[in-house]
């Protein structure tokens, strides 16, 4: 742990040296990690606690890790979460009896760590939060109270605090909570929406008991910028997990479209930003506020990327983002950037009593680098950075084979689950990071669990086959047959891109796989090279030549126990090792084929948690997908 901490701190201290040429998402992440080197101190002068701001920031760092492949972000997240979770899964400073929806937010990192590492303590801790949800007090309509001490109240904020965790937990542990999750959005939207503007009031009191609540509607008096930001982010994040075929999914997308349209109407015309109270921009004392702008940019840009919103929202996002950089971002003498003008808090009720008036919202102080603004700034920056590359894969689909590679195992719950080189597998054995990279290039990802045919490959631009099963891995493997090779060859000649990733000859079904590979002048053979002993990383080195058309600009990657490739016909070697071809390419008809004798771009070798950073597997995976998606 000491070595990991030293690595994180040294990385942070070096940040300003390269900040000028570094994306804003990374610059802000490094700045905040420098400020919060030991723990995330949300309330200055008070000990760090289990807090939703901590969870928001760590979720942003997780996205930076998935964008960069830099393991220092993962190590920072794990160190922080581990400071709260003991081996029994207890959560330090968390109080179940508060029934505080804010306490659920950081649980998203518990789910991430459990999926990637598999340690039971993260699952046990997440189960405590799930238990809270099951016992959370509800309004008579079934809506979650924001907190136990805020009886019968639903706040926009609470939808972000609770629902993304609830949705991901349901997906990970196969619970059917989708109607209940949808219900929370239905109730909040129905009760908080203003029919004239389409905007959402900050909160409502179902029983009309609060002094701030309208006796007729139960609504709070004003539209608050950040509250609507929480809600918009909740929608785009919950949709990541919500089943595609569920009848309520379109309701969530409809809400996102309606709210986004309403927010654009109150966007400040000159700056593209939003006021603290968005409809009262001309009222004296109102001001342009940072956190809501970052939240809207994130929700708009992600909504466009995922296909929920029309592409026109990118223009609104870009205008706002340009002004965020101009008006809210500053740089200190050390070269670290900071986010200004985030309102510290906004609430209702409590003591001293917050009445939801204009004067109240104007009375809350502004902070620099408040995590409620800086976390969404990282997320918004990532989306704007990703948006520049979406054209590479726009309208295209990448299909991963689940037929020739068809491995299952029994999980800790005793259920059989598919694993090994799948999009869904977040452990070392999966292709989850490759899937993220592919989607960030604008392409859709899919899988094929049936024998490939021209018909069921229709609509796919890229088809990846990895490490076909032998009987050692699957009792009844689906071997490559002549008819399968015929169909795939037709598809390639018609313009498809085929990626063949074998394995060493002792761990892969090679002879029948070659039925396909030989169609393109490639044959996986021995000897196996780069036989790495322990952590002698250098034994797995493959240097990249300067004229490599796929990996141009890279220097070396890590590949161990790789089969060699015998070439003929149209195939050409891209890289040789010890006099043998280990990487090849062929143009066949209108299509192209890439072959390499190892599944080297799965999570274990792209998340950089083990291999040294000098190996460029993560950027190499992205370059491979760029090559595959381009004509």
UniProtKB/TrEMBL annotation:
Which UniProt keywords are given for this protein, alphabetically ordered?
Glycosidase, Hydrolase, Signal
Database matches in Pfam families: Glyco_hydro_88
InterPro entries per UniProt: 6-hairpin_glycosidase_sf (IPR008928), 6hp_glycosidase-like_sf (IPR012341), Class_I_gatase-like (IPR029062), Glyco_hydro_88 (IPR010905), PolySaccharide_Degr_Enz (IPR052043)
EC number, as in UniProt: 3.2.1.172
Does this UniProt record's set of keywords contain Transmembrane helix?
no
For this UniProt entry, which residues form the secretion signal? Answer: 1-19
Enzyme group, top EC level? Answer: hydrolase
Q: What is the recorded name of this protein?
A: Unsaturated rhamnogalacturonyl hydrolase
